[in-house]
Amino acid sequence: MTITRKLIVAGAGLATAAGLVAVPGAATASAGGLARFHQQKIVWKDCTLGPGDEVGKELDKAGVRCADVTVPLDYAKPGGRTIKVAISRLAATGKADRIGTMLINGGGPGPAIDMPPYIRGLMGDAGTRYDLIGMDPRSIGRSAPVDCGWPAGTWIRSAGVDRRGFDRAVAFARDLADRCARVDPELMRNISTRNAARDIDVVRAVLGERKISYNGASYGTYLGAVYAQMFPGRLDRTLLDSGVDPATWGPGLLKTTGAANERALVGFADWAARRNAEYGLGATRKEVLDTVLGVIQASARRPLRVGAYAVDDNVLPSELFNLVGSDREADRSHMAASLKVFKEAAAGRPARPHERLAEELEFVLTGKESQYGSAQVALLCGDAAGERDPEAHWRDVQRSRARHPVFGAVAHNINPCAFWPYTPREEPTRISAELPSLVVGATGDTRTVYQSSLALHRLLGGSHMVTLRGADFHAPYQAAYGNACLNDQVNTYLGTGVLPRKNVVCEK
User: Which residues form a coiled coil (predicted)?
Assistant: First the structure.
């Protein structure tokens, strides 16, 4: 569940042997109906799709091979329309000590086909012992991609500081949903985490594996948990980094994040106050926080002109939401430099964004990466229905302002699911699987908050927990926070298959 690129429930149907649930008005397919998909021959090929495909070029350079796996668009009709799911493989270096196949998901929801070389670099000695598989979930990347022609790369906005800002947010969310209503209806109706989990099982079968290991972060933890619930006994070593609480996954998933982001902002303010001579944001915590609130208020009066971009009170808090999610020195320096730019703009002075900020504003304020946000929200809205009354969202925003003055209007704002043209075809998955696994969570996580990781740990029988205490950071293993204690716990488990004897706490 992220704003920018790489960088994240009651009720369930009963699973059959094929991992299917009954869809109203449609016959449920048996496992036999999937035989032709399980038995298809996989053809490995170069990953580069054309001269401008930099991701493919890097994968080819790293020795990765790519393939397309055919799956049913609608698993209730396995004889009907099909789509292609794109995967990549970085093969284990030797057969003698090969552990097996590990499927990777980096959250978002976003692409994962590019991840195997990166993940191998994190895994130490264990990395070369797996065939590492990157898979773009359906609707994302190279897997039946959805692009609604959005004027933005993300659906996340603030409700602004007043009713005018909220009304703009409603219009923005409605427009995004309306654009998606013009896209292939049959495809859109079959985008969901449950179908992505079914796709994983087809990939597993095509690869000839009885079990696969799994390495998922953020949204990837939810996808992994759903797969474990739908297909019990088919996961081997499983890492779930920054767990999503299944009860909160859906259109309102950001509602749990307000307090964590406000605490992280206070931590940043203390850091910036000690560096006032460099950034000029304030010499005390209060002064820095007043600067933040003052810049937001200024953006509500008139959009801030930052280079080629106009940044208003819908956009600025969501950009701060993105910036505040890491307490690493380089990331805090980036946030401070960005706030300095916004402060200059608020004062009416020329404000030129530095390169990284310019890239982020391009992502948020142009359609260059429309596919990323379109695919993400198609999956989110396809999993669960959202509150459709704008006034209910407005009341939530108003109630949040006193406790969470900067991020409450982001966490509780309306989003495209309120206007989504399609109804989810299945109930969300109730997670109660027996899954010996390792769940990782940082106490200051601002995306999937620490309580979410604890909740997922409690739902998965046999799971153990590694806590990174004192860090404001999301996905500390996959995003390479660099904590030696945490990395050693994870890599020892992935290498040996032996979970820690008890839950472990690593200090920042």
Answer: none
Does the 31-145+185-251+431-507 domain belong in CATH 3.40.50.1820?
A: yes
Phi, psi (5° rounding) for residue 132?
A: -95, 125
What is the C-alpha to C-alpha distance for residues 459 and 461, in angstroms, rounded to an integer? 6
Q: Angle 316-323/355-365 helices, nearest 10 degrees?
A: 130
- The whole-angstrom separation of Cα 156 and Cα 172 is 10
**Cβ(136)–Cβ(144) under 8 Å?**
no
CA 241/CA 264 separation, integer angstroms: 20
Name the helix (H) or strand (E) containing 65. Answer: strand 65-72
Query: How does pLDDT run across 201-257, given as a tens digit for each residue?
Result: 999 999 999 999 999 999 999 999 999 999 999 999 999 999 999 999 999 999 999
Q: Which residue is associated with the tokens 């926080």?
A: 289
CB 282 within 8 A of CB 416: no
Question: How far is it, in rounded angstroms, from Cα 432 to Cα 423?
Answer: 25
The pTM assigned to this predicted structure is: 0.93
Neighbours of 403 (CB within 10 A): 11
Residue 82 β-bridge partners: 72
* Spatial distance between the Cα atoms of 242 and 163, rounded to a whole number of angstroms: 34
Hey, is 235 helix, strand or coil?
Answer: strand
Lowest mean pLDDT among 7-11, 228-232, 290-294, 349-353: 7-11
